[in-house]
Amino acid sequence: MQPYAPTTPRPTNARSGVAWLRIVVALVMALLLAFVAAELWLRWNAPAESRLPFDEDPSSRVHIAATTPGLSYELGAHRTSNFLGVEVRTNSRGLRDNEARTPRAPRVVAALGDSITFGWSVGQEDAWPQALERLLQAQQPTEVDNYGVSGYSTRDQLAVLEAKVLPTKPDLIVLGFFMNDCEPHGVSPLHLAFRKDSWFAHSMLYERLVRAGRKAELRKYQGSLYRWVTDPAGPNWQAWLGVVERFADTCRAADVPVLVAVFPAFWSYDDFAQYPWSAVHTQVVQAFEARGLPAFDLVPYFAAAGLTAASAKVDDEHPNARGHAVAAQAIAEQLRQRGL
Q: Which residues are within 8 A (CB) of 109 and not within 5 positions of it... i.e. 6 or more apart?
């Protein structure tokens, strides 16, 4: 008979499960603490308020949370503020424009677009909608209403069309298009400041991670946002085509003619003859035309006016007053040529 030898009891499955649970809980808590620490650090060094591009007093800020369906923000009515030394003033309809005439002008044109149409860094009267109004007035009493808002994509402009433009029964719509308008989801500072999505999307850490993912995508296109959003095989382009289709159907149903003007970017070149995104412009114009929306490229008009990129811009994506004047002249000429 062998002598008795005590053995160490093996841990039960229950004890093993508790140990693993403690490890998982500890890891989760560590990740949460790391997330909170990173979020607090980001907010301390870059508070959310600083993401707004307008350095304004909150009581007079021109951008407000939207009440219009489909929009996260819009221009408030009767607001006056300042951006880079330029006065920004809105009328009773929340447009950067004068008050509508009474009685209504014989011809009313609705100008839709983004920050270019809004008149980024130029005086209100220098923006292309107001310059176009002066040119058309020489032919017939005309009012051009400026519905441009900084940061708006074509999706946002569709919401403006349906909720604000068509109820006024305009005689014509002119859409000012810029290449980043193809982005299906707004990522401008204003979109980030006013978005109403899930709580975690308001996290600055989440925002940085999203931007990092976006940069990773852009590296596949040599860092070109314009080529990324207009890649025919990419999801951005296909989503945008759906928006354009709806835009065209909506205007046809309302029996309102449309003209689309495609604006240039102003960086990485100087001579318009060497414009690096001509193929993208051609692709965009063809996409609008294929859906029944007359469109044209403004680059040849800037070149014909003898302008260089440096002489036509206030920054890499926005024309100066001289650039706006050339655009207005080109739009007026296209309206005459097309019988609009």
A: 129, 132, 133, 136, 142, 143, 144, 145, 170, 171, 172, 173, 174
